[in-house]
Amino acid sequence: MPSSLSDEQYAVQDLVNRKVTSSYYTSKDGVALVRVFVRSIGRGDGVVVMDPSLGSGVLLPSNSNLIRPGKVVGIEINEEPCNLARRILTKLYTNVEVVCGDAFRVAWGYRLDIIISNPPFVRWSLLDRECRRGLLDLMGRLGCAEFISRGDPGLHILSFFLMDYILRAGGYMILVMPASTFCTGQDSGLKRHLRVRYYVLGMVENGLYPSFSVGGGFRELVLFLKKRDAVGEAGLNEGTVIYRWDGKLKSIGSVKRTPRIRRQELAIPIQHIHCE
After folding, report:
1. 200 vs 3, 81, 256, CA distance in Å?
2. Of 63, 178, 248, 276, which one is least surrounded by beta carbons within 10 A?
3. What is the pLDDT of residue 107?
4. In this predicted model, which residue has the larger pLDDT, 208 or 141?
5. CA distances (Å), 122 to each of 7, 74, 100, 216, in order?
6. What are the CB-based long-range contacts (under 8 Å, 24+) for 184-192?
7. What is the dihedral of CA 258, 179, 77, 10, to 10 degrees?
């Protein structure tokens, strides 16, 4: 693990309202797993890399010896962790832009090659009414309304569609997401969107702890995604490998998909994933 990851990056969480902004940063164990996927992408000379839920910058600095981006971008809503992340990132990369603000307001103009993020898992009921109305209206304008399965999506679902909008075709996402996203019917729209627009290269559950986030408590998965060059593009023998992480990746199942069954829902083998 690179020495750039410090205890200060986790301690700063105590300075913010963790419940309201879902400031639960990716654990060191989760960071180690993310590095495995980043390494598989390659050096990526000149790519643009972003974490739109930057926190204190845990994820991006931890991969500084694996990729050579042309630009690194981070967005964080809480000022103290944002400033800490900026200080760390500018020591590691030559072209850094860190914005202290709300990603839903400022991220739309970027075009990215790689997104590495732990999106906020803020329950719909914790958002004020004006915010909820504005977010749903925004999803409608982006053409994502058909993928919002319920009227009370978690903020992690809406964050995914924001990231999808700014990720270039052929780009990669490595995300920490609640396991419940793939264990219930409430997020079927997101799963349908993944089926149409992405190669799901891997899904990983934590075999050591329920969560990949410090203090999160609920079960999470790490997703490794590649955005298709064309909507509905079919790959030969494409499939998703389900892994368990205990310091190394262990394959525990898979789901394969062919062009013939492309219209079906992305079928996640629920027996391999624990939701509670």
Report:
1. 31, 31, 10
2. 276
3. 87
4. 208
5. 24, 19, 19, 11
6. 184/275, 185/149, 186/149, 186/150, 186/153, 187/149, 187/153, 187/157, 188/149, 188/265, 189/146, 189/147, 189/148, 189/149, 190/147, 190/149, 190/157, 190/160, 191/265, 191/266, 191/268, 192/147, 192/265, 192/266
7. -120
pTM score of the predicted model: 0.83
Q: Rounded to whole angstroms, how far apart are CA atoms 211 and 27? A: 8
Q: What is the mean pLDDT of residues 21-48?
A: 87
Q: Residue 99: what are its φ and ψ, rounded to 5°? A: -115, 125
Q: What would be the CATH architecture of the domain defined by 8-272?
A: 3-Layer(aba) Sandwich (3.40)
Strand partners, 254: 241
CA distance linking residue 255 with residue 267, whole number of Å:
7
Strands, E, within 154-228: which ranges? Answer: 167-178, 198-206, 220-227
Helix (H, G, I), strand (E, B) or coil at 75: strand
30's tokens: 């989760």
Residue carrying the six token digits 């709300």: 102
Rg (CA), the chain: 17
Cα–Cα distance for residue pair 81/130, rounded to 1 Å: 26
Q: Taking the CA atoms of 17, 22, 26 and 30 in sequence, report the sign of the dihedral they define.
A: positive
Domain boundaries, given as residue ranges, for the chain: 8-272
Query: Could you tell me which residues are beta bridge partners of residue 187?
Result: none
CA distance 190 to 238: 19
Q: How far apart (Å, rounded) are the C-alpha atoms in residues 68 and 154?
A: 33
